[in-house]
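wait is this the right file?? whatever heres the structure
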């Protein structure tokens, strides 16, 4: 029987005795076990394994390859705002006609005898025009025609017509449709007066012709909005008076990369307005056009369109 087993058997036999013997024997047993050769051997091996684990160098973290800096570009969405008011839709026409009838039915009678001299030409003109407005609001059968000498009625109408010509009334108004609309001239700033127009440039990229907004790179330590305005002048000339709306971009576009090792290309879009002048494309720009939102969709690439369509006005 080994020394450890004997000590363990001895401690177990004494454990059944009195309380003070149990305490003394337990201390003796724990002291003997701690100072036995087997325990010292196990402790030595444990300390050696711990020192070996602490002395070994920690594993080095794997470092990924440094990513390339993205290539930045800026583009200008140059806008020509509508130059005439939009035509009313059928719903809008019906709504305003209904409101006009309500106002005319509820308003107080106009005191024309206070503003016009009785029997004057101005009073006659006002009465004739008021009858026409009543007919337009409530229909031809609403106005009751008063008997009047036909000769005097014709004389009054002729006098009112002469007065209108003297005051410049009745002159033909400028048509809402410009000649450039009928001829299909997309370079004219007078076309599509009711719509927002945007400047598009045609150039060669990657061996093929593409339509896009004025776009260019950004130099080191250059602000993005400054780079956008500089590229606009470089590609479209200095014959336009333009205004960049904000220093903050209105959108971001990341073109699809064909080369996996090439840096990422990021294009920041800025909003601008043309106040006067016309584009004069520089060398390298094949053509330009002022187009509406629907016309832009037909000209640009599908991926490009999906990224810029929400930056354009529907009207």
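ok assuming it is, sequence goes like this
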């Amino acid at each position: 029987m080994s020394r450890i087993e004997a000590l363990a058997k001895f401690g177990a036999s004494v454990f059944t005795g009195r309380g003070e013997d149990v305490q003394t024997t337990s201390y003796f047993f724990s002291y003997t076990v701690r100072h036995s050769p087997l325990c010292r051997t196990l402790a030595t091996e444990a300390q050696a394994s711990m020192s070996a684990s602490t002395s070994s160098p920690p594993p080095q973290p794997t470092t990924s390859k440094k990513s390339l800096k993205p290539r930045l570009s800026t583009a200008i969405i140059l806008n020509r705002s509508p130059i005439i008011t939009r035509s009313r839709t059928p719903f809008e026409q019906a709504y305003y006609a209904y409101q006009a009838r309500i106002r005319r039915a509820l308003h107080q009678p106009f005191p024309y005898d206070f503003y016009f001299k009785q029997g004057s030409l101005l009073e006659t003109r006002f009465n004739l025009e008021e009858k026409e407005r009543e007919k337009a609001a409530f229909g031809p059968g609403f106005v009751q025609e008063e008997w009047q000498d036909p000769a005097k009625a014709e004389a009054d109408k002729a006098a009112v017509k002469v007065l209108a010509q003297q005051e410049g009334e009745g002159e033909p108004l400028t048509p809402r449709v410009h000649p450039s609309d009928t001829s299909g001239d997309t370079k004219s700033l007078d076309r599509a007066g009711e719509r927002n127009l945007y400047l598009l440039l045609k150039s060669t990229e990657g061996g093929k012709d593409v339509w896009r907004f004025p776009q260019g790179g950004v130099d080191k330590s250059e602000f993005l909005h400054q780079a956008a305005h500089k590229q606009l002048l470089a590609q479209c000339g200095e014959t336009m008076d333009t205004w960049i709306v904000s220093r903050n971009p209105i959108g971001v576009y990341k073109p699809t990369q064909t080369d996996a090792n090439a840096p990422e290309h990021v294009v920041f879009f800025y909003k601008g307005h043309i106040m006067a002048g016309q584009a004069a494309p520089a060398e390298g720009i094949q053509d330009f056009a002022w187009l509406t939102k629907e016309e832009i969709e037909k000209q640009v690439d599908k991926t490009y369109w999906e990224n810029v369509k929400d930056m354009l006005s529907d009207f």
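The longest strand covers residues 265-277. so i think its the right one actually
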